Amino acid sequence: MRLKKIGSGLLAIMLAVTIAAPSQSFGAGKLTDTAGHWAESYINTAVNKGIITGYQDKTFLPDKAVTRAEFATMINKALGNGSSASIGFADVPYYEWYYDAVSKAVSASYAGGYDDNTFKPNNPITRQEAAVMISRIVPAYKVSGNLKSYSDYKTIADWAYDAMARMNGKGYIGAYSDGKIHPTDPLTRAQTAKIICDILDNETIVTSSPVIDDDGTKLSNKIYVNNVTIDEDLGDDSATIDNCVILGNLNVKGGGEDTITINNSRVSNVTVDKDDSAVRILAKGETSIAKLSASESSILQTASLSGGFFGPGFSNITINSSAEVTLKGSFPLVNINGSKANVILDSGTITTLNVTGSGKYSNITASGSTTISQATVNSESYFHGTGTITKMNVNADGITYETKPKSWTIASRVDTPKEADAVLSVTFSPKNKATDVKLDTKITITFGSAMKLRNGSSISNSDISDFITIRKSSTSGSKVSFSATINSAKKEITITPSSNLSENTRYYVIIEDNTLKDSDGNTNDEQSIYFNTGTATSAFTTTYSPANGATGISINPSINITFSESVVRYSNGNTISTNDSYLKECIVFRKDSASGTEVPYSVSISSAKKITITPNSSLEANKKYYVAVLGSRFKTSSNGTAVAASSATWTVGVSAPSLSNFSLSALDTSITASFNPNVAGKVYLVAIPVPASGSVGTPSVTQIKNGKTSTDQTAAASQNTTVTASTSKSVTFSNLDTETSYKFFAVLEDSQGNPSSIQSDTAKTTSLNLKTLSIRPNGGSNILSSSFSSTNYSYTDISVPNGTSYVDVNAVANREAFVGEVTINNTVGNSLQVDLQGSPGSRTARIEVKIQEIGKSPRLYTVTVKELGSTKLQSVTINGNPYTIGSNYEIAADTSDVSLMLTPEDSSAILTMSGQQLQWNQPIPLSLSDTTNMNPSVTFTVRTADGRSTQDHVIRFKRTTPTP
Predict the structure, then answer these.
(1) Are 646 and 680 in a shared domain?
(2) Would you indicate the residue range of the signal peptide (predicted)?
(3) By C-alpha distance, which of 131, 157, 127 is closest to 144?
């Protein structure tokens, strides 16, 4: 049996766009066929803007279908899309007019090709295909129309449903006059004009290439057609991209571990190339980053991704030579494409990891309980850590591992990978040999696992100077004084030199030999790196403590304003003394706002950089306070740059405990509760089965803490866990009953015993099975659409129409994410084309769909399909004369008796008339006694031998009068 995969073909349809031959440009007033058309105003606008053109005969042909090439051209013109990519579609040669349009569409990642490496530029685009494409161009977070209001909503393909709902909600795809949405109709030129005009009217489209260099910058609700740059002047600060679409390239050259957040947005391409310290890029919610190329140091992280078409996160990551990349979260595809890369999977999973032939000598660390589902290794590389590698394809010599893969396939003449001792992974920032490092840089050292002192003691901040040294100019040069901290995970050390480093100077950072050990007991070797400073400091900053927007501040706070470099008087450049009365001319401290009541205070300055404000008496609880530095009061001592005005507003009071982002995630026998506490303390949780009535009483705080229900019965399960402020946490309840709904109640109690409000949510444990199974004869409609049930595992003798040569099979699991695979007839994947076998009219196929989670028994669905026999006629003979099937069967006007003979396509079929069985290829006498009836007819019934298909055939005679 010949099997052919079709899954990626469906994806190609979803991603692809449509186009057609170019036409002569005319003004809208010269078009001859648009007057009075329902879309006349939209057509006129689109034509006058040069987005859509007319034809050489001055027609527009508004109801003509739009081709894939035409559609890409129109979208590119409407948006001003100027990016391009290298393409190699077999049917898009470089000399064709549409090559440039397709190249731009592919670069912006809203268009793609098919499995056979074609683009099909001259094929029409359907309305649902266009909706998918448009959904990749416009921001549409939390937008959804009610498709069920259209009677034909069930004809929308599964892969297009969400996109259709969003574009319907945005108003870009609507109903016809018949009230239906017609998803499979070709999109017309008139409809395209309306869609494009609506997008231009309703969306904010940015064609410039903005540069982000201010801390806290947020881009929201816009389409960026060209490039966006996170500038190096942002330093280690943060920026946010929210509900945006970037069709060009997002260049990340700045930002720090305070994060570049990409939330509910789509980005075509990201290039990460920050050359001093690591930048963290966080993908959240409905975020899709089609391609990312990482150089230098970076942290790529996912959180609360929605998954699916709109929220896959980082779809395709390429890691270049000598890059140091830390991954946290879920990553479908990671390619190591450069030598000596250092990749750390700190948490989560990589579905597919490819080490290319250019990725030799790279180090890959899978920490803790992380998983790499499949690694294909094509060059010498080294795998570290205790994480799981489910399968490895070994295609090169010199591969080593710390934790052996669960399975591997070793290519011919390739050495078996060897076990190697655990390596203590250490990453520095600035990285080794970095240049032009800022004079006020902080140095970070990140370990691959939690660290302890060699004697097993926990590392404290005061211990760090015992094993780390910074030296100037050489490894034996003068020591550099610094302060240092280690984070609570004991994996990252941050070093702050006591004063700015010298210009154009080399500095060495040294970790002494045999002073530390990791969680596996491995001690460290001596390690050192060096970097070279430049001449500049980071961008000047003014930092407030308490920070702007802070709440729960003490009534006797420590109030500080810290400048990133020393300042002097603006007027004359004089130094400001510790208790200079001039400071009160520069500082504002008021209740409520800038115009509120003044607060009495004293003020001082230290090191010409830090201003300390001390209130004369305790502040009022639950009251806002405003602190500000006035403009043109200070300037930098280094270059005389004026210090800009700035301010912060914060609130005194005690923060009441609260839980946010409480959510549940269910598997077959377990449910995980996730939440974010605002204060440190302990979270208590109970799980209670939901009865048939659907009602579960809310237990009290005390009952939750004691693991009880509202009626003081013991809950089905209960747990408690210690939490830290503003740190998300998850708790998993295992060994629950499957196919059972549980209601969870949670409460946070702070260290003083103050409880939060009770949070609750309901989830159902669900066995892994198929959500949908579709069988489409010759790629047509799904014949299982009404009969499929996820708990029915066998479908026998499913009839397919006569002439069916193959069926398209598509299977979708009821859980979006699970560790395992779906196979169709032993081929891994969700989609497969299966050919029917046997003679025409009786062909059959057996389909076996298996869904299996790793470590559990598979679930098997079987379907047998059988082709219906033919009920068609092959020939008709009247009075010995052969006739073409379906023609007018002419007889003389006075003919009353006819001899009819019928021949079938299927000789086993049964022929009847008026319930009486007749013989094929035998004369059938008919009496047409009423010669006044000029068009008599007679009805025959053809039934297949198995009785599964029946067709009526009407033989209509036509009496003709002889020519005189």
Answers:
(1) no
(2) 1-27
(3) 131
Q: What is the pTM of this model?
A: 0.50
Mention every residue, 6+ apart, whose C-beta is less than 8 A from residue 37: 43, 62, 190
Angle between helices 40-48 and 189-202 (to 10 degrees): 70
* Residue 241: both structure tokens together: 């991209």
Residue 178 lies in a domain: no
- Helix or strand holding residue 72 (H, E): helix 68-79
**CB-CB contact of 795 with 777 (8 Å):** no
How confident is the chain (964 residues) per 10-residue block, as mean pLDDT?
30 33 52 90 91 87 90 88 82 87 84 84 90 90 90 92 91 91 93 93 91 88 92 84 93 83 94 83 93 91 89 94 92 95 93 95 91 96 92 95 94 91 76 83 87 91 94 91 91 90 92 86 84 78 88 85 88 84 91 91 91 90 88 84 89 80 88 90 95 90 94 94 89 90 93 85 88 93 90 91 93 82 93 92 92 83 92 89 81 85 88 91 87 86 88 88 64
Report d(CA 101, CA 72) in Å as an integer.
6
Written as one string, the DSSP assignment of 416-444 is PPEE------EEEESPTTEEEE-TT--EE
Q: What is the CATH number of the domain that holds 483?
A: 2.60.40.1220
The verdict on residue 774 lying in a domain is yes
What is the DSSP code string of 441-478? Answer: --EEEEESS-EEETTSPPP-GGGHHHHEEEEESSTTS-
CA pair distance 809, 802, nearest whole angstrom? 18
CA distance 325 to 309: 25
Helix (H), strand (E) at residue 46: helix 40-48
Q: Which residue has the tokens 């502040």?
A: 619
Structure tokens at 927: 């009496």
How distant, in Å, are the alpha carbons of 57, 74, 82, 112, 320 from that of 192? 21, 9, 20, 19, 41
Tokens 């021949």 sit at which residue?
A: 903
Rounded to 5 degrees, φ, ψ at 777 are -60, 125
Q: Strand locations in 667-805, DSSP E? A: 671-677, 681-689, 717-723, 729-733, 741-750, 759-764, 770-777, 794-800
Which residue shows structure tokens 């010759």? 778
122: closest CA among 19, 236, 44, 12?
Answer: 19
Residue span of the structural domain in which 239 resides? 205-419
3-class DSSP state for residue 909?
A: coil
- Report d(CA 940, CA 901) in Å as an integer: 12
Angle between helix axes 158-170 and 127-135 (nearest 10 degrees) is 70
Q: Do 453 and 597 lie in a common domain?
A: no
Whose CA is closest to 495, among 539, 441, 454? Answer: 441
Q: Is residue 7 one of the residues assigned to a domain?
A: yes
Q: Under a CB-based contact definition with an 8 Å cutoff, are residues 15 and 110 in contact?
A: yes
Report CA torsion sign: 33, 39, 44, 50.
Answer: negative
- Residue 483: per-residue pLDDT: 93
Regarding whether 859 and 757 lie in a shared domain, the answer is no
C-alpha–C-alpha distance, residues 78 and 84, integer Å = 16
Q: In whole angstroms, give the CA distance from residue 283 to residue 843.
A: 50
What is the per-residue pLDDT for 694? 82
Domain count, the chain: 7
- Exposed, middle or buried: residue 682 (CB in 10 Å: 0-12, 13-18, 19+)? middle
Residues 100 and 51 in one domain: yes
Q: Max Cα separation, the chain?
A: 131
pLDDT at 69: 85
3-state secondary structure of 693: coil
In the block, tokens 């416009």 appear at: 138
Q: Are residues 277 and 406 in the same domain?
A: yes
- Non-local CB neighbours of 597 within 8 Å, separated by 6+ positions: 590, 591
User: 731-766 in b/e burial notation, b at 16+ Cβ within 10 A?
Assistant: bebeebeeebbbbbbbbbbbeeeebbebbbeebebb
Residues 165, 222 contacting (CB under 8 angstroms): no
Task: Tell me how far apart the alpha carbons of residues 856 and 626 are, in angstroms, rounded to a whole number.
Answer: 60
**What is the distance between the alpha carbons of residues 702 and 922, in angstroms, rounded to a whole number?**
91
